[in-house]
Each structure stands twice: as C-alpha cells, then as structure tokens.
Amino acid sequence: MQYSVRISDYQKNTMLNMCDAELIGKDVVDGELKIHISENYYGSQLVDKDKAISLLSSASMLNLVGKETISLAIGLGIGSESGVKIISDVPFLIIYNT
Question: Which one of 5, 65, 70, 89 has the lowest number of neighbouring Cβ atoms within 10 Å?
Fold first, then answer.
C-alpha cells in the first residue's frame, strides 16, 4: 500500500495531507457536494506504510482521506471512528492536535 502525502507548515504547526494513493485524481460526489482529490492538495510524494506511520505520528494537523489511510491513523490512536465523515463510500477525517 502506498500513501500520497504533502507536508507543509501552517502557523508553526506541521500540516499533513495524506490519502490512499489510488484516490489521487478522483472526484467524490454526493448530491451537490463535489470534492476533487487532487495531487496538488494531497501531494505527489508516495510513501510506504512505515514512512506514513512516522508522518502521522509527528504531524499536529492532519487531513486524511481513504480507507487505508484512516484505518492506519485510527490504529495508531490518532483520531477516532466518530470523527470520520463518509462521502460516496470514501472516508474523510480532519484532526487538530495543536
């Protein structure tokens, strides 16, 4: 499994955008809501599970998309199932650990 990531600094915090790599370029549609999972936002850097775990553990702001990405985060105790929003069978989770 590979994860697509983008890391940035936002107001002195590390922000991590991560998604399941196969979701890059996909559109998620639910009625009037349309979300494009773009390489520009979620990153073009591909990482393996070990690197993903390291990044998840060190970021203070996380924007996560995809079943594998969110399952990995929740398995690490980062975030919870109750915070997950599912849109057209694609899970989204935003976490602020500031």
Answer: 89
Q: Would you give the distance in Å from CA 1 to the centre of its chain? A: 14
Q: CATH number, domain at 18?
A: 3.30.1860.10
Domain containing 47: what range?
Answer: 3-96
Q: How many residues does the chain have?
A: 98
pLDDT in tens, 54-79: 999 999 999 999 999 999 999 999 99
Q: What share of the chain is helix, strand, coil (3-state, %, to 5)?
A: 30, 45, 30
Q: Residue 61: which of 75, 86, 44, 78 has the closest Cα? A: 78
* Residue 53 in this model has a pLDDT that exceeds 80: yes
- Asked if residue 88 lies in contact with residue 30, where contact means CB atoms within 8 angstroms, the answer is yes
